[in-house]
């Protein structure tokens, strides 16, 4: 067991997956807390589908996948927030439209170019082999930028998450910080998407923070616990995936799910006592 | 020069006018209460004063040393705050943001002001408690402390006693009186509770899609609008 776990580190692709996945897990846990509390949980799902479409198009046109997906997702995120504000189409409906629309475009592009094959399956459900050496550098740089910006804007992000109208009334540029959140989220989604899969990436945003919220009494501890849970779930999940050759994204989500139920039980136990 | 003066201000949603021809001013130290029935435009006007909604006509001018971001706001509580994991200290601290300008993090002087505000509103003991676990009255006091951190000049309060038990209502009104008298804070409040607020407020603004009455609380009670609303409340 230990030997085969140590073997993980002998493969370059595993090292890359561990580094990028670990960083993405941290970013998504931090951002996820704000998104869940602002009732934007589905934004991750919407963006990952847009990411899928843009990846498909990038491959078809022979462009570098990330340099296409990131700007496209950023634009989609702004668009979603804008809809939220104008509220002619409700946020959840807009996300649903975006999801299925983008998925259709992506599937159509793939079937017209390379045809449906295992690549599609990898896009959808993620692959441990997805991170190429050239992706590694960009992913590391971008996720460090995301972490850095999150820390720098932390007090403002808290204020905008807790009470947007108060923050706006007392002179905080809430639009700007919403955009920062959207920008950071889209980068995180694109970075994590190919390992976790289009259909599963949003769990990385939602699970750790929902789990942490079961037991934490303040915001700072919530994001720290969420970050730890996310990292733990990722490492356990990817190890299981490596040891038993099972899909990476799915095993991470299942570990996250078990953690969630454990914490839910803990919360219920605590409530019963008091 | 007044703190805030409105000149023929109007508001509209998607082209439909909901409020028109509003013209009044708020002086330093005033205690203004905005009354009117549901749909009269009270909340819209409040949003306009807070800069959350743009006026479709007329102008809102801040003066007498008051800047547009020096407003402490006590909003109606939102649904999402009921499961929000935040300690009371974190909530109050977020009121200091507008004082930070280019600083990224909370400074020593901010901490001092947060502690003073919590002391003043008697919520120091709740510092580490989780906001979602508090009673309605405690929450309002914590949010009032946050508003106090944001501004010691002007406090804007939206339906502060909605959903509170009678004792907590009384406490909250007394707290507002104290802020107005002791700290000299200017208060603008929207309320349904006409009978209570005419006793406490200095000035009344009655809205019914436009401005129906603006003047002292005593004059309001003897005006036809005041009589009408008080009577309606008794019947309800």
Describe this structure in words.
- Chain A: This is ABC transporter.
- The complex is a heterodimer of chains A (274) and B (236).
- Chain A has one domain (2-264): ABC transporter involved in vitamin B12 uptake, BtuC.
- With 274 residues, chain A is mostly helical.
- In chain A, helix 2 runs antiparallel to helix 10, helix 3 packs parallel to helix 5 and helix 3 (43-60) runs antiparallel to helix 11 (201-215).
- Chain A contains 13 helices and no strands.
- By secondary structure, chain B is an alpha/beta fold.
- In chain B, 38% of the residues lie in helices and 23% in strands.
- Chain B has nine helices and ten strands.
- Chain B has helices spanning 42-50, 88-93, 97-100, 108-120, 136-150, 166-182, 194-200, 217-222, 224-235; strands spanning 4-13, 16-22, 25-26, 31-35, 57-62, 71-74, 154-158, 186-190, 203-207, 211-216.
- In chain B, helix 5 (136-150) packs parallel to helix 6 (166-182).
- Chain B is globular.
- Chain B starts with a strand and ends with a helix.
- The mean pLDDT of chain B is 87.
- Classes of the chains: A mainly alpha (274), B alpha/beta (236).
- The interface between A and B is medium-sized, with 29 and 39 residues.
